[in-house]
Design brief:
It comes from Variovorax paradoxus. This protein is an alpha/beta fold and 316 residues long. It is 44% helix and 19% strand. Helix 2 (38-54) runs antiparallel to helix 10 (272-281). The longest helix has 22 residues, at 3-24.
Length: 316
């Protein structure tokens, strides 16, 4: 072998080895919430399978704080090489609408990898209220203007905007009571100090008889509660909203890298073990192209911008 050929051969082998090393680099999936919460649990279910399909370690890294701003900003500023991803939820769409310090435009700020799941939020009331259906609650609220309350995780939270949408659609005059978390709002409903909230984790409390789930917000019924109607089935049109989990990459991530990640995610979402675990969490796997995630973000942005405008909400 001549010297030139030997150098060419060594260079080719070195390139292959370098590619293998890069392929084996860990993928960091940043979750902008604390460990143990609903989004974090869903992320770990996905990422465990995603690592197997990619043939790379996939590590969940929790970066809570700032209403998801801290974790989201970390991904925006990361190198766009496919090794740092954001797994988040509908808060990604809502945050720029309710926090004046957040300057990103949700539909264009990051490269969509794909939507992973959708899930409903339950319409939850205290079990002692004299209502058993959503229609009965609406009628009860209309007969008692200003006397019933709904709780949320604070101004600008999903439950706050959901409550304002509910008021606009029903004409009910409900008083907003903000708390520091959705779990606190749900606890107060169970205790009878607040009448209504919107929460995806109410099933266990409903089993105790302390709260009643009147409907779910999604376009489909919650797989854990097949007898509970959707809001549309219960007679409330226009309230159909799906929450979701989705994955984004930093803007500028090469299209082939995004395509590889999207294909891996779609493969994961077809696995029966993952679908079964999702059903236990009240989620439905939702695979597809990256554009489906951006379509969802645009829908959320348009809907909640309208809710904020019509309710004349101000955020500082």
């Amino acid at each position: 072998m001549t010297l030139l050929r030997r150098r060419t051969f060594i260079g080719a082998v070195g390139g292959l080895l370098l590619s293998s090393v890069r392929a084996a680099e860990a993928v960091r999936v940043i979750v902008p919430y604390a460990a143990g919460g609903f989004t974090d649990i869903g992320a770990r279910v996905i990422c465990e399978q995603l690592g197997q399909v990619l043939g790379q370690p996939v590590i969940v890294e929790n970066r809570p704080g700032g209403g998801t701003r801290i974790g989201t900003s970390a991904v925006f500023g990361a190198k766009p090489d496919g090794h740092t991803l954001l797994l988040t939820n509908i808060a990604y769409s809502i945050l720029p609408l309710v926090d004046p310090s957040v300057k990103y435009d949700a539909p264009t700020a990051a490269a969509p990898v794909g939507i992973a799941s959708v899930y409903s939020i339950a319409v939850v009331v205290n079990a002692q209220l004299p209502v058993k259906t959503l229609r009965e609650f609406i009628d009860h609220a209309r007969k008692n203007p200003g006397k019933l309350t709904y709780g949320s995780a604070g101004p600008g939270s999903g439950a706050h905007l959901g409550g304002e949408l509910f008021k606009a659609l029903t004409g009910a005059d409900l008083v907003h009571v903000p708390f520091r978390s959705t779990s606190s709002a749900l606890t107060e409903v169970a205790a009878g100090r607040v009448d209504l909230t919107f929460d995806g984790t109410a099933l266990e409390l409903a089993k105790t008889g302390k709260v009643r789930i009147l409907a779910v917000s999604g376009t489909d019924r919650d797989p854990r509660m097949p007898d509970v109607p959707t809001v549309a089935e219960a007679g409330l049109k226009g309230m159909e909203t799906n929450s979701w989990l989705g994955i984004f990459a930093p803007l500028g991530t090469p299209a082939p890298v995004v395509e590889r990640l999207n294909q891996a995610l779609n493969t994961v979402l077809q696995k029966e073990a993952l679908k079964a675990r999702f059903r236990e969490l009240g989620m439905v796997a939702r695979s597809g192209s990256p554009s489906l995630l951006i379509d969802q973000v645009r829908h959320d942005t348009d809907l909640y911008r309208r809710v904020i405008h019509e309710a004349k909400l101000k955020f500082e």
